[in-house]
């Protein structure tokens, strides 16, 4: 079965584990979803989750644990939400965060402003006519999408993008029980893994 590692240095790890376990069971598939804290675990995964949390803290901890290199050369798919989105792009508007440069996107932190610190918003997913309830918590936005990446989700701004097997989202799809984005990620991951 598939091995999905959730980067557990900081952030909402258990919610991501539960959501991917639920998605795998919907698909009737076995698999292993587990937290990881060591760089050596990265190449053992088929997919990695970079959770929400505090991107400056996670950036610092990724450096301290020597994870930048193994993440940049990782061959599987990365599912990056909120603080994870801040980390996965090529550019971010805060010098305290070192971007991984895995997705061709520029990200702005805390972009919804203080009056909308946390909110629920209807998100439009490209190719899906049912709105998705997005939970935004001091959420970043995707400021620009370069030619390697493709916008996927919209809510006033671009709030989701894909690039190959990777998916980056401003909001928290692991909250709320709607598994469409997890299922789409797993479907795309399979497509890229079996591509010639
Ligand atoms: N604002 C946070 C950051 O930029 C992200 C918040 C979250 O992950 N919920 O790190």
From TrEMBL:
> Top-level EC class, please?
hydrolase
Q: Which reaction does it catalyse?
A: L-glutamine + H2O = L-glutamate + NH4(+)
Instruction: Kindly give the Pfam families that the UniProt entry links to this protein.
Output: SNO
User: Which positions in this protein are listed as binding L-glutamine?
Assistant: 53-55, 109, 137-138
Molecular function, one GO term = lyase activity
Single biological process term from Gene Ontology: pyridoxal phosphate biosynthetic process
SUPFAM superfamilies recorded for this chain? Class I glutamine amidotransferase-like
**GO cellular component, as recorded:** cytosol; glutaminase complex
Q: What Enzyme Commission number does this protein have?
A: 3.5.1.2
InterPro entries on file: Class_I_gatase-like, PdxT/SNO, PdxT/SNO_CS
Key words of the record: Glutamine amidotransferase, Hydrolase, Lyase
Q: Which residues are annotated as active site?
A: 82 (nucleophile), 172 (charge relay system), 174 (charge relay system)
The UniProt similarity line reads: Belongs to the glutaminase PdxT/SNO family.
Matching NCBIfam families: PLP_synth_Pdx2 (TIGR03800)
What this protein is called in its record is glutaminase
Question: In which organism is this protein found?
Answer: Methanogenium organophilum
């Amino acid at each position: 079965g598939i091995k999905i590692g959730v980067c557990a240095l900081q952030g909402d790890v258990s919610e991501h584990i539960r959501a991917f376990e639920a998605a795998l069971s919907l698909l009737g598939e076995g698999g292993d979803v587990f937290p990881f804290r060591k760089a050596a675990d990265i190449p053992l995964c088929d997919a990695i989750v970079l959770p929400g949390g505090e991107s400056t803290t996670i950036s610092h901890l990724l450096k301290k644990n020597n994870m930048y290199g193994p993440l940049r050369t990782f061959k599987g798919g990365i599912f990056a939400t909120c603080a994870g989105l801040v980390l996965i792009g090529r550019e971010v508007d805060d010098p305290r965060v070192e971007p991984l440069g895995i997705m061709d996107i520029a990200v702005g932190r805390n972009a919804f402003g203080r009056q909308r610190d946390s909110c629920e918003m209807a998100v439009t997913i490209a190719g899906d006519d049912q709105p998705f309830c997005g939970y935004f918590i001091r959420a970043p936005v995707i400021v620009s999408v370069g030619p390697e990446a493709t916008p996927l989700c919209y809510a006033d701004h671009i709030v989701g993008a894909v690039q190959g097997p990777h998916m980056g989202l401003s909001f928290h799809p692991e909250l709320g029980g709607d598994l469409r984005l997890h299922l789409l990620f797993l479907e795309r991951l399979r497509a890229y893994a079996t591509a010639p």
